[in-house]
Structure formats: structure tokens, C-alpha cells
């Protein structure tokens, strides 16, 4: 009698973290320094900000209190999300078995076929997380609120640092980047980690513009450094076209509970119970974003109704 191999697997704790981490933290905006990661957020976490002013005074023999300290906080509340997916084994078995077992006629699944399927799902989740980090809408099913959306109600931002955008192109990208850096001021310009986050389309326009200017006499040959007037440019694939955001790295946060033991990944082969060729993949995780000091953020192409 033929032996049927089941691939039903449950991953919990650290094992689950491997797959949840691959799904969430391979987002390019989380690996290139555009956004700081705050793990182990069980329900909510507070991002504290502090501003000091007038703290220096003339010396005297007494202790004389001077200056002001303004402490503010913003709360990051990751949204609970899940993946409930059904995959047909026949659509993936040929590729996997050809790699693992040669062109075998046997129908048994390799022991790590479940890892292969989870890898496919994790890659797709990472892509969706990247998009949500910037333009996700909390009220939309399967999405968490993005930074672009949050900054549209940033009451701490000055009107001068909200730059009206236009349709970016190779002919205007240099001038439009200049509008952003013009609002830095001396303090922000020298702030560690200060950078301008740009979408892929803006990066392509920047390359074209630098080629037209004959960068290092290379023109259309070679790579262009991601730096504009001494300020780093960070390419974020999830950002909307014609949008730019400038601030320092630890002022934008991504919160998740990826290291929590509450995370669970299940791979359920329904061949034995339903007699079909399907595998169900179940993932649960949390994700959310927040900004810290809203006054230190410069936006381009984002309409802020609160300033």
C-alpha cells in the first residue's frame, strides 16, 4: 500500500519568528535605514520626544532653574494581520522536486516543501508590508496605516516644511530636491542620519538628471551615488510617486511583535482530511508605523490638513 506523506507543520515561538521576520523585515525600507524597527510591541508602545530650549544662563553661586523642557509622546499600535492562503501542490511540485530530487516519478513531497511554500508567501507579504509602511490605509482590510497617511495630519509640522509637490521628472528633480533641503536649517542638516526618502520613480529621474549633467564625465555609464548636496537619498519602493519625506532615521518607526511567542505559522496539508492536493498556510503577525517629532519632518507632495 502506498505511503502518503503529510507536510502539516506548526511553527511557534522562535521557529515562527524565522518566517514572520522574513515576511516583515525584508521590506527594503526596513533594511536600508529609512525606518527604524521597534520589535516586541505586544499591544502599544510609546515613542517619546523631548525638546529643550533656553537651558544656558550666566553663572552664579546659586542653583537657578532655567530653560524649558517639552516632552511629547506618540503611540504606535500595530494592527493584527493574517494570511489564510490555499495553494495547490501540483502548481509548485515540479519546480521543487526537480531541484531537490531530480526528475523523479515518485509523488512524495520533499521534507522541506513546506519551507518552500512559506518562502513564496513570505516574499509576497514583504512586498505588501513595504507598500503599507508608506501608503497603507488603516481602514482598508489587510492594510495598516502608512507614514504618508499619518503625516497628512501632523499638527507639529510647520507650514514651511510642507512643500507642495508637482509631477517629478528628470528635468525638475534637481530643483525639487533643492526645495526639500532648503527647509532643513542648520540643526536638521547636521542631524545624524538625516536623509531624504524618495520613491523608485524619483530615483530614476535623479539618475537621468545626473547623466545629463555628465556626472564625473561618465554621463550614462556607471552608478550615481545616492547623495544630494551632502544629504543621503534613501530609495523606498513602497512610497507613492511624486512624494518625498526628509527626517532622521530614528524619527520614523515600524512596530511589530515578530519576536513574540504569540506568533504562529501553520502549514496544513488537506490531502488526508479532504482528499485534495491543497495546502493551507496560516500566518498571524502585527505591524504598524508612527513618527516621533513631527516638527522635524519635511514633506514634499503630501497635503497636511493639520498645520
CATH class: Alpha Beta
- The tally of beta strands, per DSSP, is 14
pLDDT < 50 stretches: 1-6, 102-110
Q: How much of the polypeptide forms β-strand, as a percent range?
A: 25-35%
Name the overall outline: globular
For the record, give the distance between the C-alpha atoms at the N and C termini, rounded to a whole number. Answer: 73 Å
Please give a structural write-up.
The protein is an alpha+beta fold and 307 residues long. It has a single domain, classed as Major capsid protein gp5 (Major capsid protein gp5 fold). Helix content is 28%, strand content 26%. The protein contains 9 helices and 14 strands. A hairpin with a 2-residue loop joins strand 8 and strand 9 (231-235). Helix 1 (14-25) packs across helix 4. The relative contact order is 0.25.
Topology (SSEs and partners):
Layout: E1 9-12, H1 14-25, H2 28-31, E2 36-38, E3 45-53, E4 68-76, E5 79-88, H3 90-100, H4 113-135, H5 147-151, E6 162-163, H6 173-181, H7 185-189, E7 195-198, H8 200-212, E8 227-228, E9 231-235, E10 244-247, E11 252-255, E12 264-269, H9 271-274, E13 278-291, E14 298-300
Parallel strand pairs: 2-11, 6-14, 7-9
Antiparallel strand pairs: 1-12, 3-4, 5-13, 7-10, 8-9, 10-14, 11-13, 12-13
Helix pairs in contact: 1-4
Task: Give a brief outline of the structure.
The protein has 307 residues and is α+β, with helices and mostly antiparallel strands.
What are its keywords?
307 residues, alpha+beta, 6-stranded mixed beta sheet, Major capsid protein gp5 fold, single chain, globular
